[in-house]
Design goal:
seven-stranded parallel beta sheet; alpha/beta; DNA-binding
DNA sequence: ACGCCTGTGCGTGCCTATCTTCTGATAGG
């Protein structure tokens, strides 16, 4: 019996380490090595490995189960494969612990402040003893930063501003990261005896681009069993509360998770309540009050009699509403729309018929053109646009006109043997400072799909940046504006932009605007995407995939399109190849 | 640290604009 329990515990412990955990540790090691001034190529190896783990389609432990399985991954040799196995088995890495003995891990966090890289972080630590964000703030407000060599008032001010932004986004994680933690935890709970329903509610279910915590809701005949299984989950670092209907824990990653257990008769009401948003709940309850009903997390009540609560539809029905998709529950007009029967039929993942923004090894992608084409064919797409970078984006190894001509010939060859899939010749053309495009007129005219985007000089004034992008949209060859605000969730704020002016220009010139489905971009965001649709602009949902695995990011983009009230008709890449061709200007 | 390679090892994103700065650090995918 004891032996079984141990074996079981070990198996579960291993299962609790996700690819993102390996990636997180490798990234931290890379940062620490960089602060120490280690061989830059060694640093890069860890970063590349982190990225590989982050975007791997399958669990790393499946590969680790086979001899030499991990070593087949690009950039993973014997050493890193061994370290991955160590992390999968123990949840940590001796090298990481050893590095943090010399260099406090707080310095890694400090490097997330814009203006602070490895050198300055090390200097702050050596000269001022600053080893945490809190100490950095104290030093900054005391004006001590400017006493350091190379630090002047301007840099101090930039760091103070960076600290403000850092705090503003604190405590929220990207939805895709939340997904990585939620899915195995839910699987762990699902097998509990007596459990009939389980959902992750909250902003996770509404598919917000970031979530503050996870709210898990379960219906079970024996709540104690669910709670026990939750509290003993191997990923739990700290238990904050443990009652019979509510438990709260913090995972090793710092993510807070709440579990609520309700009887099945209340499940729908509880799911509605815990999905929120708060403003949406208030609107629903106000409708109930008008009908002399009380709506709470246990059900809908007339007096003391429960008239519904087992399913969400019962609760909504009682107050005269159809069920509203969770993505719309932000109190942005969805309650009125539902009452008047004009809820949109939202776009779905299955509606998307092709990807209009992907990279290959010809620039900074990690899959070859042939592999990308084959992966898109295997996904059943009608079309894909190959959109590698142009020369100004040097870090990405952007192509010159000659490079594109070479790529065109290969596309022609691949097209000849891939009859079901239309391969569109494209480029992600850099928008230069003055709004001109980083590609000659002849090559631009030869492209089927011209995607344009900003990759440099993010600090321009709002007026200058708006002028820059609007100028680019006026170019007759341009079809799509990619990642319009340049934001990176949790890392970089969007640049200053008059979005209304940009969307007006897009509409006037027939330019499609992208929802970039990279989990840390999701750009346009939900609010801007809805603005776009309301302004008469057509959207595209594209992955910006840099590997065949990243083609699966599509669902993150569709999530945001749904939050923006998009119907299939609002999204250009739900169209057939012929219809898409008509939407792309000639 | 990897990958290619056979040298008891070598080259690798590896460059460039900009600002935080005045020689160096950061940022860009």
């Amino acid at each position: 019996m004891i032996v079984d329990a141990r074996a079981h515990g070990r198996r579960v412990r291993r299962a609790a380490v996700e690819n993102v955990d390996v990636a997180r540790i490798f990234d931290e090691v890379a940062d620490l090595l960089e602060i120490e001034g280690a061989n830059p190529f060694r640093v890069r190896a860890y970063r590349a490995a982190a990225r590989t783990m982050d975007t791997l389609g399958a669990p790393a432990r499946d590969l680790a189960a086979r001899a030499d399985g991990l070593e087949t991954l690009p950039g993973i040799g014997a050493d890193l494969a061994g370290k991955i196995r160590t992390i999968l088995e123990t949840g940590d890495l001796p090298l990481r612990r050893q590095l943090t003995r010399r260099t406090p891990a707080g310095l890694v966090e400090m490097m997330r402040i814009p203006g602070l890289g490895p050198k300055r972080a090390k200097l702050l630590y050596r000269k001022l003893g600053v080893r945490t964000i809190a100490q950095l703030e104290k030093a900054a407000s005391a004006g001590r930063l400017r006493t350091l060599p190379g630090f002047k008032q301007a840099l101090e001010a930039k760091i103070v501003q960076g600290l403000r932004e850092y705090h503003a986004r604190q405590g929220r994680v990207r939805l895709s990261d939340a997904d990585a933690y939620a899915a195995p935890l839910v699987e762990h709970l699902r097998s509990t005896p007596g459990l009939s329903r389980i959902d992750v509610a909250g902003s996770y279910r509404r598919r917000r681009d970031t979530v503050g915590d996870l709210d898990i809701l379960a219906a079970a005949s024996r709540p104690r069993l669910v709670a026990d299984r939750f509290l003993t989950y191997p990923g739990v670092a700290r238990v904050e509360a443990h009652g019979t209907t509510r438990c709260a824990v913090v995972l090793a990653s710092g993510l807070h998770v709440d579990l609520r257990i309700v009887p099945a008769v209340s499940y729908g009401a509880a799911l509605l309540y815990f999905t929120g948003s708060k403003a949406h709940n208030i609107a629903i309850r106000a409708l109930g009050v008008k009908r002399r009903l009380k709506v709470n997390e246990y059900g809908v009540f007339r007096g003391t009699r429960r008239i519904g609560g087992r399913r969400e539809e019962e609760v909504c029905g009682a107050v005269g509403l159809p069920c509203i998709p969770p993505e719309l529950r932000e109190d942005r007009g969805e309650v009125d729309a539902a009452r008047e029967g004009r809820l949109p039929h939202l776009v779905e993942l299955a509606d998307i018929r092709g990807d209009l923004h992907v990279h290959t090894t010809d620039t900074d992608g990690r899959s070859t053109l042939a592999d990308m084409v084959e992966a898109c064919r295997a996904r059943g797409y009608a079309y894909v646009a190959i959109t590698d970078h142009t020369k100004a984006v040097r870090v990405a190894g952007g192509l010159t006109a000659a490079g594109f001509r070479r790529q065109f010939r290969e596309i022609d060859r691949l097209q000849a043997r891939t009859p079901g899939l239309t391969i569109l010749k494209g480029a992600e053309v850099d928008i230069l400072d003055d709004g001109t495009l980083d590609l000659d007129a002849g090559t631009l005219a030869a492209l089927d799909v011209v995607v344009v985007a900003v990759h440099s000089k993010f600090a321009m004034s709002q007026a200058a940046m708006t002028r820059r992008i609007v100028t680019a949209l006026q170019h007759p060859c341009v079809h799509i504006l990619a990642h319009p605000t340049g934001r990176l969730i949790g890392r970089r704020e969007p640049y200053a932009l008059d979005m209304t002016a940009v969307l007006r220009a897009a509409r006037d010139h027939g330019v499609l605007v992208e929802i970039n489905a990279q989990p840390d971009r999701l750009d346009l965001d939900d609010v801007h995407a809805r603005m776009a649709v309301d302004a008469g602009v057509r959207l595209v949902v594209s992955t910006d995939a840099h590997s065949v695995d990243e083609l699966a990011f599509l669902r993150h983009g569709v999530d945001q399109a749904r939050r923006a009230w998009c119907r299939a008709a609002d999204v250009a890449n739900t169209r057939s190849t012929a219809a898409l061709g008509r939407l792309l200007k000639t």
